[in-house]
Amino acid sequence: MTSLAIVTYSEQHFAAVRALWEEAFPNPKPWNVPELVIRAKLAAQPDLFIVALDGEQIIGSAMAGYDGHRGWLYTVAVLEAFQRRGVGSALVREAERRLMALGCNKINLQVQSSNGAVAHFYKSLGYDLEERISMGKNVR
Questions:
Q1: Which ranges of the chain does DSSP label H, i.e. alpha helix?
Q2: What pLDDT score does 90 carry?
C-alpha cells in the first residue's frame, strides 16, 4: 500500500465498491444488491458510509448506522489482496469514531456463524459474543 486514506463514499466510488462487494459478498440476496443498498444508505446517514483508498484504488468499505439508541456495523469489506494489512481495522475504527461523534454508546454487528475468521477479526477489535437470538423478517 502506498498510503491508506478513509473517506466518505461518493457516487464516483460506485463501480469499485460494487466490484469489492462482489468479491467479498458473492451471491447476495435480492435485497442486498449494491444498487439497492447503496441508494438506501445515501438517503439515510450517508456520512456513515466510508471507503478505504490506497492511492486512487478503493480497497475496502464499511457502512454503519445509528438509530439514536445503538449503532450497527454493516458490510465491512476489504479486497482479498489487501487483507491482514490493517485496512479492516482502520475502517472499523473510523466507523466507530463517527458513531461515537453522534452520541452512540454501543455498537452491534452480526457475523454469519459459518464465518469464524471474521468473528475472530472482530474479537481482536474488542467485540464480544453476546447471548442473543437474532431474528429477522423479510417484509418485501
A1: 14-24, 34-43, 87-101, 116-124
A2: 97
